[in-house]
Design brief:
This protein is mainly alpha-helical. 62% of the residues lie in helices and 3% in strands. The protein folds into 3 domains: 83 residues, Orthogonal Bundle (Arc Repressor Mutant, subunit A); 111 residues, Alpha Horseshoe (Serine Threonine Protein Phosphatase 5, Tetratricopeptide repeat); 45 residues, no CATH class. Helix 5 packs antiparallel against helix 6 and helix 10 runs antiparallel to helix 11.
């Protein structure tokens, strides 16, 4: 052990036990610390010179008795001098309040709920996040902790859907704090919510009502995004391909199903062709053909109309 480390050990142990005993002798400190008597005596004399302890010589005792100073400021200073020997506690990187964990659980449930249940869960999450914000110290909390709380508040505003501008502001503040703390995974999660906000903005701006129109707005946002996860990009490419062929597949499937029922399909095909509706196949494509069940005939039976003029209720035909 280096002399500097040994001196630090002596200083720490002597001061700790002096605060613990409040009144002691050199022999008592030696037994309590296991240190060399000369090292203990030297440190006690230093404490005496600095005014932390006072020496008393009592009749009938060979050793001097030391006691802590009666000055409360000196006692507090001695106690604080021990802080230099301990590493500072690590800065919290995420909230630890129980209300924060409860808010996360409630928001996760709200994302899957619908209607009245969703509204009640969001109202509950709002109260939980407010309590968590106060429990974590509000603006006095470390920046990473504030970032987590800001993100969940932005997520709440996004799910409520009543103030998307506020949701964007909260998420951008959270993103800035996450980026400053070097938490890249949290930054990417915030970016996903910002993309969702942009998609909802485009849906509103283009007045997209149908699911197809809304899906196209989402695909446009993902296409313009600077970085999207590989799984999300694969899903976007598949959805884009499906959106370009869905109409053709549906019309072809309906046409094939009708072709085995009535000869009027040919008239329908000609009529649709005259109306110049695209992507109506001239005949069912080979890829869309499906084998008929074994219990059905290969050709539909010919059903003749009944001659109702020759039938009368309750009497057989003549």
């Amino acid at each position: 052990m280096s002399p500097q480390a040994m001196h630090s050990e002596v200083k720490l142990k002597v001061r700790q036990n002096a605060l613990l005993f409040r009144q002691f002798t050199i022999s008592q400190l030696v037994r309590a610390t296991g240190l060399n008597p000369e090292s203990v005596r030297t440190e006690v004399q230093r404490l005496k010179q600095e005014g932390f302890v006072v020496a008393e010589h009592r009749p009938g005792q060979r050793e001097a008795v030391y006691r802590l100073s009666d000055d409360p400021e000196k006692r507090l200073e001695l106690s604080r001098s021990l802080e230099a020997f301990y590493p500072p506690p690590p800065e919290r990187s995420r909230p630890t309040a129980c209300l924060y964990q409860a808010a996360l659980h409630t928001l996760n449930q709200a994302e899957k709920a619908k209607g009245r249940q969703r509204e009640e869960l969001l109202a509950q999450a709002a109260h939980q996040l407010e309590g968590a914000w106060q429990a974590e110290g509000a603006s006095r909390a470390p920046d990473p902790v504030q970032a987590h709380l800001l993100r969940e508040r932005g997520r709440l505003a996004y799910l409520q859907g009543t103030n998307l501008d506020q949701a964007r502001q909260l998420l951008e503040q959270a993103r800035e704090k996450f980026a400053a703390a070097g938490l890249e995974s949290e930054v990417r999660l915030v970016d996903e919510y910002l993309l969702c906000l942009e998609a909802r903005r485009r849906i509103g701006a283009q007045r997209a009502i149908s699911s197809t129109e809304q899906a196209r707005c989402v695909l446009e946002v993902m296409k313009d995004a600077p970085s999207v996860g590989p799984l999300a990009q694969l899903l976007a490419d598949l959805a884009r391909d499906l959106s370009s062929t869905t109409t053709e597949l549906v019309v072809a499937a309906v046409y094939q199903g009708m072709s085995g029922i009535s000869a009027q399909v040919e008239e329908l095909r000609l009529e649709l062709k005259q109306r110049d509706i695209p992507r109506i196949p001239e005949r069912p494509t080979q890829e869309l053909e499906r084998p008929l069940p074994s219990f059905l005939p290969s050709k539909p039976p010919l059903i003749l109309p009944m001659d109702l003029t020759r039938q009368r209720r309750g009497k057989p035909n003549a």
